[in-house]
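Field log, afternoon session.

UNIT: design team B
ACTIVITY: writing a sequence onto a fixed backbone
BACKBONE:
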C-alpha cells in the first residue's frame, strides 16, 4: 500500500502523532504478541539512551536499563498489567549507558483486533523535570514550546521522506493516535478551511468536549469568534503569500469551554503537508493556573512594593534614629530624619558624607559595632558614647537585626538616645551611695533580706546589736543561720531550742509588717520593726529603746500617782460638796428650831404667870382664856417648826447616806429628786432673786445608784449658782424629767450667763475652771461626766451660748445592764 492510498484524515493523524511524539518527547513502543517483537520509536530510543546502532531491546533488555532499585517493582507492574485489559501507568528511573539517571512515565494498554488482544501499545515519557524541578516548570515549558516548533519543522521534512513507508505508516497509525491522546496539551488538526479533522483526548479535559464530537466542527467552537476569524485571516494570507505571523510561533489567545467559560490558552500552529494537501496542527495549552499564579505574583509584588513604601514612611516618621547598613563595604543604604538630627547632620547631606569613625567618642567602638551588626547574634543592648557634628557627646543604645533591603542583605540599626537615662542612673548611683552611707552611719540597725531569706545588706549598727560572728552576717548568708545562733545563745530565753528557732523562722517568713521587742544578752532592749519591701524581700530595723522603756516606766508610775491624786481630789470634792450640804442644812434647821425654842420660852413664861396667879387665887376667866390662846399658838408654832426641822433632817440623812454608801437600789425619781432639791434649797439664801422650778414625772422608777444621782444633781446645782448668776442676779433654775421608753431624760437648765463655745468644749475636762481664783477646783463637772457615763451608764450633753443660759440633757437607763462601780 502506498502513502497516496491513505485517507486524508488517517495521514494527518499519523503525521500529528509523529509530530506530537517529537514535540512532547514521548517515546512509544508496540509489542506484537504473536511474534514477541517490540517496536520502539525513535523518541523512545532517545529517552532510553540508545542510538540507532543499538539492537532493538526486548523486555529483558529494557529491565536492565531500569534502575536496579526499581526493576522488581516495574517487573511486577508489567506482569499485573499483562493480565488486565485496561490501560496502566507507572513511573520509574532508567539508567542510561552514559550513566545518567532519568525519571520516566510509562503507560501501556491492550490493542484488540477482531475482539482478540493482538498487541500491547505503550508510551514512555521523560518526567525528570517534573519530579526534580517543579519550580522551573515555566522555563521548561518555554523550552518545550521552542522544541515543538523545531520538531514540527523537522517532522515536515521527515514526512516527505517517509511517504513511501506505507506499511510502517499503517502499523504506526494506532501508535501515533495513542501518542496524541497521551499528550497533556490539547492537539487539534484542521484543514485550510478551518474545519476540525481530529482532536486528542486532552481536548475533553481542556474544553469539555468529546473528541469525536468535534470532528467536522469549525475552529470557532474552541476559540472566540474574533480570535478564529483573525487566525483564519492569517492562514488565508499564508496560503496566498507563503508568509505568516503565526506559523511556528506561540501566541496567547482566549478560548471557550463547552460550558461557555472563556479562559486563556497558549496556541501554537504549524503547517503539515501530506499528499499535496496542507493541514494545520494546533497545540493548545490551558494557562489559566499560570495566569492566576502570575496575577497573584504581580499582586504580591505590588503589595510588597506598597509594604516597602509604608515601611519607608514608618521609618521616616520614627522618632528613633534608624539606619540600614550594607555588610561588606559597610555602606550606609538608608538613614531617617531622626538619625540626622541625632548626629546634627545638615539636611540634604549625602549618606556617603555622613562619616563613621568620627561619630564615635572612642574610634575602637566602630569596629565593635560593625562586627556586632553582622554576626549570627545581632546586638540588642550595646551602649556607646557617640559624637555629634558640633563635638558634643551623647549616650546611644544600639539595636540591630539582619534584613533584606532592596534585594541586598543588610542590617537595620536602631539608635536610642539614653543620655537622660544614663544621667538618672548616675544620680541614682550617687543617691544609692548616699543612702548606703546613711544606712551605715544610722544609729538604728538595718538589714535587708531577699525572698530566699539571704542577707542582701546589713549595716555596722545591726552587726553591733546582734553581736554574732562576722561570717554569719556576710552578704549572701542565710539570715536563718543568724536566728539559730541567737536562739542557741539564749537570746530568746530558755526552753526547747528547736521550737524557739522554728517560731523565730516563722516570724522571718511572715511578710506582713510587724513590730516586736528584742532583749539582747547585754540587757538592752531593742524595738524591731519589719516591713515587706516587695518581691519577697524584707527590711528589718532595730532601734535601742532601753532609755525609752525606762522613761515609759517612770511615766507610767507618774501617771499612776497622778490618777491616785486625782481620785483623792475627786473624793475630797465630793466630801466638800457633802460638807457644804451639811452646812446649808444646819443653817436651814437653825431657823425652825430657833423659832420653836422662842415659842416654847414664851409659853413657859406665860405658864409661870398663870401658875403664880393660881397660887394667889387671882386667875380670872379672861386671863385664863388669854393663857390658853397663847399656849395653843405657841404649841402650834413649836410643832410646825419642829416638823420642818425633822423633814430637813430626814431629807439630808437619806441624801448623805446615799452619797456615802454608793449602793445600787430602786428609787422613785420624782420623790428622790425633790428630797435632794430640799437639801439644796439652803444654798439659794445667797441668791434671793433666783427661783427653783421642778417639773417631774411622778411615776418614773429606776434601779440605779441614788448617791451618784444626787451627786450629779448637787454638782449641777452648785455649778449653776457659781457660774450662772451673780449674788444679786435674778433667774430660774429648772429641773424636768420625762420617761422615754426604757430611759428617763433629766433636763437641768438655767437662764443665767451661759458660756462661749471654747468653754463648752472643755467643760467636762478635769481641773478646767473659769473661777480658779475664786475657789473653783475644776473637778465638779468632770465628776458629773464620769458618774453619768460610767456608774449611771447614761449620756450627758451640754448646750449653751453667752447670755442665753445653759442646758444639760442627761439620759439614763431605767435598768442599767452594766454598772461601772469604781
Amino acid at each position: 500500500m502506498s502513502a497516496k492510498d491513505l485517507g486524508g484524515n488517517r495521514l494527518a493523524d499519523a503525521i500529528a502523532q509523529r509530530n506530537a511524539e517529537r514535540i512532547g518527547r514521548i517515546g512509544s513502543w508496540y509489542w506484537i504478541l504473536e511474534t514477541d517483537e517490540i517496536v520502539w520509536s525513535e523518541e523512545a530510543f532517545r529517552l532510553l539512551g540508545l542510538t540507532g546502532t543499538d539492537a532493538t531491546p526486548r523486555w529483558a533488555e529494557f529491565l536492565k536499563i531500569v534502575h536496579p532499585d526499581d526493576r522488581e517493582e516495574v517487573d511486577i507492574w508489567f506482569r499485573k498489567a499483562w493480565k488486565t485489559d485496561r490501560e496502566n501507568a507507572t513511573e520509574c528511573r532508567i539508567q542510561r549507558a552514559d550513566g545518567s539517571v532519568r525519571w520516566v512515565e510509562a503507560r501501556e494498554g491492550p490493542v484488540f483486533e477482531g475482539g482478540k488482544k493482538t498487541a500491547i501499545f505503550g508510551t514512555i515519557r521523560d518526567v525528570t523535570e517534573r519530579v526534580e524541578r517543579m519550580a522551573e516548570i515555566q522555563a521548561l515549558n518555554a523550552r518545550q514550546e521552542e522544541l515543538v516548533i523545531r520538531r514540527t519543522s523537522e517532522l515536515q521534512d521527515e514526512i516527505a521522506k517517509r511517504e513511501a513507508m506505507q506499511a510502517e505508516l499503517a502499523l504506526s497509525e494506532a501508535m501515533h493516535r495513542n501518542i496524541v491522546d497521551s499528550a497533556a496539551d490539547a492537539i487539534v488538526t484542521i484543514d485550510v478551511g478551518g474545519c476540525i479533522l481530529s482532536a486528542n483526548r486532552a481536548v475533553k479535559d481542556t474544553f469539555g468536549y468529546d473528541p469525536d464530537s468535534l470532528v467536522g466542527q469549525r475552529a470557532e467552537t474552541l476559540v472566540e469568534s474574533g480570535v478564529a476569524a483573525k487566525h483564519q485571516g492569517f492562514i488565508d494570507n499564508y496560503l496566498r503569500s507563503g508568509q505568516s505571523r503565526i506559523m511556528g510561533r506561540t501566541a496567547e489567545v482566549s478560548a471557550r469551554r463547552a460550558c461557555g467559560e472563556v479562559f486563556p490558552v497558549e496556541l501554537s500552529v504549524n503547517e503539515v503537508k501530506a499528499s499535496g494537501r496542507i493541514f494545520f496542527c494546533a497545540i493548545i495549552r490551558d494557562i489559566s493556573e499560570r495566569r492566576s499564579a502570575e496575577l497573584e505574583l504581580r499582586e504580591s509584588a505590588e503589595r510588597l512594593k506598597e509594604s516597602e513604601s509604608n515601611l519607608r514612611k514608618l521609618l521616616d516618621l520614627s522618632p528613633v534614629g534608624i539606619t540600614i547598613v550594607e555588610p561588606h563595604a559597610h555602606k550606609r543604604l538608608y538613614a531617617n530624619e531622626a538619625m540626622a538630627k541625632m548626629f546634627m547632620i545638615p539636611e540634604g547631606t549625602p549618606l556617603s558624607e555622613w562619616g563613621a569613625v568620627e561619630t564615635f567618642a572612642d574610634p575602637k567602638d566602630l569596629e565593635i559595632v560593625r562586627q556586632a551588626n553582622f554576626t549570627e547574634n545581632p546586638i540588642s543592648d550595646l551602649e556607646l558614647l557617640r559624637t555629634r557634628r558640633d563635638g558634643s557627646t551623647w549616650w546611644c543604645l544600639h539595636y540591630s537585626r539582619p534584613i533584606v533591603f532592596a534585594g541586598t542583605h543588610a542590617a537595620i540599626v536602631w539608635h536610642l538616645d539614653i543620655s537622660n537615662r544614663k544621667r538618672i542612673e548616675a544620680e541614682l548611683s550617687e543617691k544609692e551611695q548616699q543612702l548606703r552611707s546613711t544606712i551605715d552611719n544610722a544609729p538604728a540597725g538595718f538589714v535587708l533580706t531577699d525572698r530566699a531569706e539571704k542577707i542582701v545588706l546589713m549595716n555596722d549598727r545591726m552587726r553591733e546589736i546582734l553581736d554574732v560572728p562576722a561570717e554569719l552576717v556576710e552578704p549572701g548568708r542565710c539570715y536563718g543561720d543568724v536566728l539559730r545562733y541567737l536562739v542557741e545563745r539564749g537570746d530568746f530565753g530558755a526552753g526547747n531550742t528547736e521550737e524557739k528557732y522554728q517560731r523565730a523562722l516563722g516570724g522571718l517568713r511572715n511578710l506582713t509588717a510587724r513590730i516586736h521587742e528584742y532583749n539582747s544578752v547585754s540587757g538592752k532592749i531593742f524595738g524591731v520593726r519589719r516591713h515587706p519591701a516587695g518581691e519577697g524581700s524584707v527590711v528589718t530595723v532595730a532601734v535601742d529603746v532601753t532609755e525609752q522603756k525606762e522613761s515609759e516606766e517612770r511615766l507610767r508610775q507618774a501617771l499612776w500617782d497622778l490618777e491616785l491624786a486625782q481620785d483623792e481630789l475627786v473624793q475630797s470634792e465630793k466630801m466638800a460638796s457633802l460638807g457644804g450640804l451639811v452646812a446649808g442644812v444646819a443653817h436651814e434647821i437653825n431657823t425652825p428650831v430657833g423659832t420653836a425654842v422662842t415659842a416654847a420660852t414664851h409659853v413657859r413664861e406665860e405658864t409661870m404667870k398663870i401658875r403664880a396667879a393660881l397660887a394667889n387665887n387671882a386667875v380670872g376667866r379672861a386671863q385664863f382664856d388669854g393663857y390658853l390662846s397663847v399656849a395653843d399658838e405657841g404649841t402650834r408654832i413649836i410643832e410646825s417648826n419642829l416638823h420642818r426641822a425633822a423633814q430637813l433632817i430626814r431629807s439630808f440623812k437619806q441624801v448623805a447616806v446615799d452619797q456615802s454608801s454608793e449602793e445600787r437600789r430602786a428609787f422613785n425619781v420624782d420623790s428622790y429628786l425633790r428630797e435632794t432639791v430640799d437639801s439644796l434649797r439652803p444654798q439659794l439664801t445667797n441668791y434671793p432673786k433666783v427661783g427653783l422650778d421642778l417639773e417631774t414625772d411622778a411615776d418614773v422608777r429606776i434601779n440605779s445608784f441614788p448617791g451618784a444621782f444626787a451627786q450629779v444633781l448637787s454638782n449641777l446645782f452648785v455649778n449653776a449658782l457659781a457660774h450662772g448668776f451673780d449674788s444679786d442676779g435674778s433667774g430660774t433654775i429648772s429641773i424636768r424629767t420625762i420617761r422615754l421608753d426604757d430611759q428617763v431624760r433629766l433636763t437641768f437648765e438655767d437662764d443665767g450667763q451661759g458660756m462661749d463655745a471654747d468653754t463648752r468644749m472643755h467643760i467636762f475636762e478635769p481641773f478646767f475652771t473659769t473661777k480658779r481664783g475664786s475657789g473653783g477646783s475644776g473637778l465638779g463637772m468632770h465628776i458629773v461626766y464620769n458618774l453619768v457615763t460610767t456608774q449611771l451608764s447614761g449620756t450627758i450633753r451640754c448646750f449653751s451660748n453667752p447670755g442665753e443660759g445653759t442646758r444639760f440633757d442627761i439620759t439614763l437607763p431605767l435598768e442599767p445592764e452594766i454598772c461601772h462601780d469604781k
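LOG NOTE: The first strand starts at residue 26 and ends at 32.
NEXT ACTIVITY: expression trials, pending approval
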